[in-house]
From TrEMBL:
Signal sequence bounds: 1-21
InterPro entries in the record: Peptide/Ni-bd, SBP_5, SBP_5_dom
Species: Chryseomicrobium palamuruense
Protein name, as recorded: ABC transporter substrate-binding protein
Domain Solute-binding protein family residues, every copy: 88-455
UniProtKB keywords: Signal
PANTHER family for this protein: PERIPLASMIC BINDING COMPONENT OF ABC TRANSPORTER
Lineage start: Bacteria, Bacillati, Bacillota, Bacilli, Bacillales
Record's keyword annotation contains Signal: yes
Length: 542
């Protein structure tokens, strides 16, 4: 494996530095450990985690939900691993890898002795089948297909060798192959057995094995007794110490905290600052602070709607938001205001974007609407040709406060916002059908290539829910994927941000800090700057 060449071709060096810098200052543990005596790791018990969102499916080829990857982190695997301290790629299910001089042919040597949860072997040929399934149009894959969009062919000349050929150098490839998410190994036998129900019966290679899913309540995993192929940065060489891992889906924050206080759950993830104050001096809990690698909230405009095809209206939507006040009122200031489509933590972020991004200016926003022909009526709502400026905005419970604040801000402009609150899975499904004017969204990603999925015209039937179609943007997004020189790739994303601001396709809002409260009954958690809280080394102290 020629590590220096790999890193140069993928332009990952600068990405690693920026990502690590963006996370290191904010991964703080607070609280004391005096109340809990910690000894050697113990076997047995159950760890129960409270999560805010339930995935739509655990067939990772057929989802674009972050919630699905939060679950798959426990039962999945990946060819490579990313060291949480150095951020360098390390062997995992692939023992080694190499790349051709032109950066388009990747050869992976696959580890032997690995099995899927159903006992079938994992090897180069089974993983070839997994990737080909994601590429097959009949699968209707979402994010997985997009992550493989530059792949020309996948082949396995034998059970230990996997060859991936790309159409051109593809900067994010190793990143996508290092996360147990959309490209995780799948048992083809299980897919054949369960058919359309595979998403309710996932089979992969990770430390935890799927046991059951009670809709609206929880997913339960049991430890994989055969697991002995840990990632390099974990310490536990064998199966997990606990017998079970239970992920409970609790949307309401107060209900989640009550479950934590009562001991019904051992950890509550992705909380806001105000929710964790009471645990700061509690010796029975640990607070772990993390920063999202993507915006917590932005508004996507639906360009299929004639009203929103008018750039004056889109500019008014941007100028009409007092982001500083929104940040304070919605999440108590525990985050940063966003001015463009990339967060500060991702490679390619333009440090000058605040100088040209939209800032709150009510009078300019009104002037944009006036220029577009929207006049105030006697009820304070704007009209044009007998039509009122009424827009439906999709939201979810987690954005409830922010949505109501935005509704009030837009009312000052004379825009009547009707909020439709949906669970995230339903929101994405509704937005994909085009049944909306505006929608609240957020994303988390390890690479700026996420913008290709969300903005490229070729993704309008996938995750480009706003139906953006701009030739200049497409060319820049394609350059961002293929550039082998770090500065060239960075410049492509800077131009993308400038164009996104100019065209006002989105209304960037904020990126929040996230807080995780974990009972000290659970020891041995791992904090990864990209993947968050991991329980591979965790054990129950009782």
């Amino acid at each position: 494996m020629r590590k220096n060449q790999v890193l140069n071709i993928l332009a990952m060096g600068l990405f690693i530095i920026l990502l690590l810098a963006g996370c290191s200052d904010s991964e703080n543990n607070t609280g004391t450990s005096d109340a809990v005596e910690v000894g050697e790791p113990k076997t047995g018990g159950t760890i129960t985690i409270a999560m805010s969102e339930e995935p739509d499916t655990l067939d990772l080829h057929k989802t674009g939900m972050l919630a699905a990857t939060n679950v798959s982190a426990n039962f999945g695997g990946a060819l490579l691993s990313q060291n949480p301290e150095t951020m360098e790629f390390e062997p995992n299910l692939a023992e080694s890898w190499d790349v051709s001089e032109d950066g388009t042919t990747w050869t992976f040597k696959i580890r032997s002795g690995v099995t899927h949860h159903d006992g079938t072997p994992f090897n180069a040929k089974t993983y070839e089948a997994t990737l080909k399934r994601a590429l097959d149009p009949a699968t209707n894959a979402l994010t997985a297909k997009t992550q493989l969009a530059e792949v020309e062919s996948v082949s396995a000349p034998d059970e230990s060798t996997l060859v991936i050929k790309t159409k051109q150098p593809f900067a994010p490839l190793l990143q996508y192959l290092s996360t147990p998410a959309y490209l995780l190994p799948m048992s083809m036998d299980a897919i054949e057995k369960h058919g359309d129900q595979y998403g309710r019966n996932p089979v992969s290679v990770g430390p935890w094995k799927f046991e059951s899913w009670v809709s609206g309540q929880e997913v339960t995993f049991v430890k994989n007794e055969d697991y002995n192929w840990k990632e390099p940065f974990f310490t536990n060489d064998g199966p997990p110490k606990p017998d079970k891992l239970v992920l409970k889906f609790i949307t309401d924050t107060q209900t989640k905290l009550a479950a934590l206080d009562s001991g019904t759950v051992d950890a509550a993830l992705a909380l806001q600052a105000k929710d964790v104050e009471k645990y700061e001096n509690n010796p029975n809990f640990e607070i772990v602070e993390t920063v999202r690698t993507g915006p917590s909230a932005f508004i996507m405009t639906n360009l299929r709607r004639p009203i929103l095809q008018d750039i004056h209206v889109r500019r008014a939507l941007n100028l009409g938001v007092d982001k500083e006040n929104l940040l304070q009122a919605a999440i108590q200031g525990a985050g940063v205001v966003d001015y463009g489509p990339l967060p500060t933590s991702l490679f390619g972020y333009d440090e000058n974007i605040e100088s040209y991004g939209y800032k709150y200016d009510l009078e300019k926003a009104k002037a944009e609407l006036e220029e577009a022909g929207w006049k105030l009526n006697g009820k304070g709502i704007r009209e044009k040709d007998g039509e009122t400026l009424t827009l439906e905005m999709l939201s979810s419970p987690s954005w409830g406060t922010a949505a109501e604040i935005l509704q009030a801000m837009y009312k000052e402009l004379g825009i009547d916002i009707k909020i439709t609150t949906l669970e995230v899975a339903v929101l994405i499904e509704t937005a994909a059908k085009g049944d909306y004017d505006l929608t609240m969204l957020g994303y988390a990603s390890h690479d700026p290539d996420i913008l290709y999925m969300l903005m490229h015209s070729g993704q309008k039937e996938a995750l480009n829910l706003g139906h953006i179609d701009n030739k200049q943007l497409d060319e820049l997004l394609e350059l961002g994927r293929s550039a082998v020189v770090p500065e060239e790739r960075k410049n492509a994303y800077i131009e993308i941000q400038k164009l996104a601001v100019e065209e006002a396709w989105w209304v960037p809002l904020y990126t929040a800090k996230e807080y995780n409260v974990i009972s000290k009954r659970v020891q041995g958690i791992t904090v990864h700057p990209i993947r968050g809280i991991l329980f591979n080394d965790a054990w129950v102290n009782e």
